[in-house]
Amino acid sequence: MLIRETKLADVAGMDRIRRSIEPWHVATVETQELWFEGNPPEAQVFRVCVPSDEGLDAYVWGKRDLYADKPGATIASLGVYPTARGRGLGTALYDQAEAYLRSIGATQVQITVMDDPASLAFATARGFELGATNRFISVDPRVLPPLPPTPPGVTLMTARECGPEAWHAVVDLAARDEPGDVPFGGMPYADWLIMDWPTIDRDLSIIAFVDGAPAATTALNANYATGKAMSAGSDCLREFRGRGLVKLIKSVSLRAAAEAGITTAFTGNDLVNAPMRAINAWLGYEFVGANRSAVKLLA
């Protein structure tokens, strides 16, 4: 087994593995290259892979979670192509990643695993405690319920029209309320501008202003070659919740996606996020699959 450092040129191989595992994986290779290069030095990213004639058989990465609400938190991701399983690749790669994370002082590591018996068993056998369930769902954006009316005082813009400052003002605060095993502690504007803003489709992502103040956003990551899109988050500031803003802007965003040629739109919801689950049920989303968060204490 050859294990080597993962390079930017390997992103296409990582994409092949992701597509084989996750039906909802939508991001283009170009977007994933932005993710690969966008980490600040403080993240101390570790990446290794197992190459194959087709590209990659397996990969793993691990890094500091700079945006968690406590120090010492790290995250990791492991992928093995289905036909390469059973050869010990996942174990070999994960062991290297965990050893590295321990060496930089990690106190915990969070991973995401598919909600199937083999994946869950792999995690629990390595000391992970299973946590939140994330349900993935999809909808045909060409078939939606009637568009809700826009309330008085509400103005809608695309991300391209509003620019990054107003968008970040919403997502950085509102996302801290999202459920999860490792709470989000906020992302500095400079990091967000490099890592997140370039990856959303600025013509399909919508923001709502209430009396001129940025209030709610919904973002899409689109792959026009496949006709698929994935939600990159829907957020609403606390003081504007309960007004139907997310329902409205998701409806507008999905209609724009349909007009742009998107035929399948995916999103993911934490199982306990009842308000978003209700909105997505109204929009007609149907269940596709699920994954689980898993956390292991290292110190």
From TrEMBL:
Alphabetical list of SUPFAM superfamilies matching this protein: Acyl-CoA N-acyltransferases (Nat)
PROSITE patterns, alphabetized: GNAT
Keyword terms: Acyltransferase, Transferase
Signal peptide: none
InterPro entries: Acyl_CoA_acyltransferase (IPR016181), Bact_Acetyltransf (IPR050832), GNAT_dom (IPR000182)
Spans traversing the lipid bilayer: none
One function term, GO molecular function aspect: acyltransferase activity, transferring groups other than amino-acyl groups
Gene3D superfamilies: 3.40.630.30
UniProt domain N-acetyltransferase: residue ranges: 1-150, 157-299
Alphabetical list of Pfam families matching this protein: Acetyltransf_1
Name of the protein: GNAT superfamily N-acetyltransferase
Organism of derivation: Allocatelliglobosispora scoriae
